[in-house]
Amino acid sequence: MTEPSIRRAGPADADAISAIGMATFVETFGHLYPRADLERYLEEAYDLERTRADLADPAKASWIVEAGEEVIGYALAGPGGLPHAEVTPACGELKRIYLLKAWHGGGLGARLFAETLAWLQSGGPRAVWIGVWSENHRALRFYGRHGFEKVGEYDFHVGDTIDHEYILRRSGESFSSLTAESAASEHNPA
Q1: 34-50 pLDDT, tens per residue?
Q2: What global pTM score does this model have?
Q3: What's the rounded Cα separation, in Å, for the pair 51 and 88?
Q4: Per-domain residue ranges for the chain?
Q5: With CB atoms 3.0 to 4.6 Å apart as the test, which of 34, 44, 74, 172 could cross-link to 126 if both were Cys?
């Protein structure tokens, strides 16, 4: 098995991002929705033009995960946009992060997550927000271990189906304290 690599996606990756987005969403959640709802959602959420616009937007960043020639995952981050009173465009949001199930559990998701958070904090500490399906217990545990707390809820539409989502947040201050600790440990090794 080829060691997976993670890299920033560019405009030439639009087709691959759109395709892996659809594939991972269907693999993860497809069984939950009537076919018409799923198809309508996929056409909107992973539309090639929308993907191209995300890749061209300087306020957003995408990553692609590859094992050899196979695309096995991706992530998308950008300005905050979740329906919560404290979300502003200055906040960061992890909008999507997915791996094919065959690649779960080996630390690859954590590597992709760390890469995404590093980009979100590259301009200085800021709050990071994530929307997560309320029944995705694995993701909720993962984000909880990484300092995210539930601060709200909202409805997420997949066609005519409405999912109950949780809004998670990690404060900018928590990132600034980690940055200060990291810098201090580099200057004062034990």
Answers
A1: 999 999 999 999 999 99
A2: 0.88
A3: 22
A4: 5-187
A5: 172
